[in-house]
Structure formats: structure tokens, C-alpha cells
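Appendix B. Raw example, untouched.
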Amino acid sequence: MEVVATILKIILVLVCIGLIVLVMMQEGNENGLSSSITGGVSESSFAARNSGRTKEGQLKKYTRILLIAFMAIALVINIIGK
């Protein structure tokens, strides 16, 4: 079991590095409260519906995937360690 735990820890480190890189590549979202007052992009607009096709949308999708992988691997390592 120690070999499996070691392999999972190495994979976890790689996922962490990937998460850091993806988060740093994303643009800041500085809309905040002023966007809701002044009329920022709403959820029903064309730009909001097709945001998954843009580079920023792809980065968010891959960040979510790596986040889920991070949580799953961390949980498995915790279970194996007990």
C-alpha cells in the first residue's frame, strides 16, 4: 500500500502544479458589485452562454477538472493512510 500511496502523492503534486499554472493563466474577474449596478454581462446574454468556447472558458473547465481530481486523490490518500 505504501507504493500506491507514494504514486498518488506524486500525482497529487503534479495536479497541484497544474492547478497553480491554470489559475495563474486566468484573467482577473474585477466586475464585482459595480458590474451588477452598471449592467455587466448577464447570464442570459449570448456572450455568457458561449463563454465555454473561449480560451478563458476552456481554462475554467480544465481548472474544475483538476480541482475535482485534486479532491478525489487527496481523499483516497487519506483513506489509504488510515
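End of appendix B.
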